[in-house]
Amino acid sequence: MKIKILCAIALLSTSVFANDPAVPEQMMRGRSSQYQDGFRDGFREAVRMMNSSNNNWNNGGGDYGGNTIRILTAMYGSHAGTCDFTERLARSVEGKSSYFFKPSNSWCGDPSNHVAKEARIEYRCSQYGRTKRVVVPEGRGEYLRCN
User: Fold this and answer.
1) What is the CA radius of gyration of the chain?
2) Which of 64, 67, 94, 127 has the highest Cβ tally under 10 A?
3) What's the distance, Cα to Cα, between the start and end of the chain in Å?
4) pLDDT one-digit tens code per residue, 28-85
5) What is the per-residue burial (b if ≥16 Cβ within 10 Å, else e) of 80-92?
6) Angle value at C-alpha 107, between 106 and 112, nearest 5 degrees
7) Where are the strands (E) in the chain, listed by range?
8) H or E element at residue 17
9) 88-101 pLDDT per residue, tens
10) How many Å apart are CA 34 and CA 105, to the nearest integer?
């Protein structure tokens, strides 16, 4: 009887956590609704990627040709707060050799209200190529190029 109850609890808890992970609400307190939406989206995407049976984290993320942009890091914000939009930008540039990027709150919310922000992006044009770094102030645009 005890084993049946433990199995039922384990099965129930596994299905609940696998389908809808609990977003850590305490990390969003005091933030704008736009920031909270971006945080939730990013959190769910990270959980989806970790649970994916075909994730490529151990092999560097896949096969990248010499003319394809590979995003290493992408951060948006200021001294007052930042957010990480690396995965979101990587999906946007996937398979492209150039991409016009314009930083705004639409990438991951507003990490620092009423403060000028900038995006800091590191990328490569091949898996082992030289790392390129760009800093783009909010409201301006910049091409990420591998051609």
Assistant:
1) 19
2) 64
3) 66
4) 777 777 777 777 767 766 666 565 544 444 334 444 446 899 999 999 999 999 999 9
5) ebbbbbbebbbee
6) 80
7) 70-78, 81-84, 98-101, 118-124, 132-137, 142-145
8) helix 2-19
9) 999 999 989 999 99
10) 8
Burial class (CB in 10 A: 0-12, 13-18, 19+), 123: buried
Which amino acid is it at 111?
P
The Cβ of residue 129 has, within 10 Å, a number of other Cβ atoms equal to: 13
Indicate the residue type of 13.
Answer: S
For residue 13, what are its two tokens?
A: 């808890």
> Cα–Cα distance between 42 and 24 in angstroms, integer?
12
In terms of Cα–Cα distance, which of 79, 86, 66 is closest to 127? 66
CA angle 88–89–92, rounded 5-degree value: 95
